[in-house]
Amino acid sequence: MTAPSPGQPPSQRLWQIDALRGLMLVLMTFTHLPTLFASPTGQPFGFVSAAEGFVLLSGFMAGMVYAGRERREGEERMRSAFYRRVAKIYLCQAAMLLFLFSVVALIAVVLQEDAITGLMKYYLHEPLHALVGALLLIYSPPLLDILPLYVLFMLISPMVLLHGLRHGWGGIMACSVALWLLAQFKLGGVLYEALAPAAGIRVPLVQTGAFDVLAWQFLWIMGLWMGAERAAQRPPVVFPRWLLGTAIAYAAVCFVWRHVVGQVPIPQDAGLNMLFDKWQLAPLRLFNLFALLVLAMHYAPWMARHLPRVRALETMGAASLPVFCSHLVLALLALALFGAPTPTRSAWIDVGIVVVSFAVLYGVALLSQELDRQAAARRKARAAGGVKAPAGPRPPSSAALPH
């Protein structure tokens, strides 16, 4: 699931990060579209989904971009940039909620498609409470439960980032790990059940979104820290051989295990399965992510030299917010119009859904790229137009202002 990350001038972009985010968007789209391709493409690298990578990468980009902005422009400008981004993400979430509660709801009522009516069950039974709760980011329907996380994470990021830049990241990471550990014992759910009635909140816990905020904040905070270190141009991390070997072994075992057994690692034991749980970011899943992260960081220079650049992925990754929102709109429409995939449905319908969806997403990415280019040109023109002539003799009328 992105989301979303701050924009920045093309010259400052890391094409490798854009390509990775583009890959995460492609995997999420395959997973969320109701086609026969959803299961085979889910968690292709082991017991880790695209959502974990996307959250970590988005935190990294936020840390890198805004730490650099704080050094160049100061604390207040950095805070303002964060909060502008929060407003943009919130408006995207609000727009998708209104689309779900109007267009998709109408289709659901007319067609009585179980796949979409089940997704909107709470709204269809409690429309007013659902609408208010959703706009307050409390009620999070399935598929629309990732952007509320981003809004919360972006809101706390200025405080966290400034503390890390001023006082170091040791205490921040210790607190983040402690929250993740408490999340494994469902502290967030316990607190919600205890406090929601006192606050007059009627949204059931099960309708607040699948992602455990206390667990998933760890990925964002870690990404924020790594991005801030990148902005400070710290030397690259050199992993000891024992850690690299352990990462290779663990990643290989999880990769083979996932493709032999399936996406559920231990089908016969629900209790042991919780050690790989996605929504609580359980320990064995987190270790799998760490192993892949170590390998990606260690082999990044080699991959940059030898692997071909896929410009389409870079284009989609650079426009992560509009592409992310568009893929959710397409998934909701596909669910409402075609329902869940069935053995009796023609495979050509699923192929058509995928082809049309990716064509739309790439078009959205190109359009976003062009709009960003035009906006940058307007900013440059305004900056050039605001240059004041120095005191002294008036230059000839044909003299041009510097650009």
UniProtKB/TrEMBL annotation:
Query: Carries keyword Transmembrane?
Result: yes
Membrane-crossing residues?
Answer: 20-39, 45-68, 89-111, 131-156, 168-185, 205-226, 238-260, 280-300, 321-341, 347-368
Q: Which InterPro entries match?
A: UCP028704_OpgC
Judging by the UniProt lineage, the source's domain of life is Bacteria
Q: Where is this region: Disordered?
A: 382-403
Composition-biased stretches (Low complexity): 383-403
Please provide an example of a Pfam family that matches this protein in its UniProt record: OpgC_C
Sorted UniProt keywords: Membrane, Transmembrane, Transmembrane helix
Cleaved signal peptide residues: none
What is this protein identified as? Answer: OpgC protein
Organism for this UniProt entry: Pseudorhodoferax soli
